[in-house]
Amino acid sequence: MSHARSEYPDFRRQAPELYEAILAVSQQAAKAGLDKQLLELVKIRASQINGCAFCVQHHILMAEKLGVSADRINLVVVWREAPQFTSRERAALAFTEALTKLEGGVSDEVYDQARAEFSETELVFLTSAIGVINLWNRYGVAFRWTPAERPVRAGS
Questions:
Q1: Which stretches of the chain score pLDDT less than 50?
Q2: Interatomic CA distance for residues 79 and 74, integer angstroms
Q3: The CATH homologous superfamily of the domain defined by 8-143
Q4: Residue spans per domain, the chain
Q5: pLDDT score of 106
Q6: Cys-Cys link to 137, which of 10, 50, 71, 155 (CB 3.0-4.6 A)?
Q7: How many whole angstroms separate alpha carbon 39 and alpha carbon 28?
Q8: Sign of CA pseudo-dihedral 122, 129, 36, 75
């Protein structure tokens, strides 16, 4: 595959109003009180499914800053088999996969699991977080944004 067709800063420069609107929606779930670590796991999982290297890396780095363990970040791709995830996280990840793949919609089982863990309002904001990361993934994949380099730690 060739290099990026354009980069993330190009998008900000080319369509600042669009960038700001998407960013504003991106921030609503956390502002509504959903756990930021959970949201980063959801964003990583959706980005893995969509093959967006830029977003996978971005949200891994964000999750690390929020204190998500390396094991949980590394195992989110196989969350069903990993005991590190809570029932709330499992419900969110199953809901993420259903909304990202959209093959058969969201089954009653997956919806009921999510509804058991999240209030109606929380589920609306979780849905918005999943929807907006899928939107960001479309830009990242379309333009092949280059993933960020891991910052070098002092003394490394």
A1: none
A2: 9
A3: AhpD-like (1.20.1290.10)
A4: 8-143
A5: 96
A6: 50
A7: 11
A8: positive
